[in-house]
Amino acid sequence: MSGTEGTDLASLTFQFTDEDHTLGNVMRYLLLKNPDVEFAGYAVPHPAETKMNLHVQTSEGMSSVDCMREAAADLGNIAKNMREKITEAVDDFVPE
What we know:
This protein is of the alpha+beta class. It is 43% helix and 25% strand.
């Protein structure tokens, strides 16, 4: 993730390199679950570029950076849970 655009911490655009719709869509979903997030949207400027821009706007007094950190932590927890469930299923698998 590179720098942010703007100086108002309640409304920032984050640019991710080497990312696309996969990360953009899940981050947008997780951000919008936060009641302090008023808007979250992403765009991939051009299919030939490996960049994804994610814009976050929060309610007054809330930091978009903090909301991004929370969403990223949520995504990490989801990935950890999925890894545990898949590992458990593979370990329990009995071929016929």
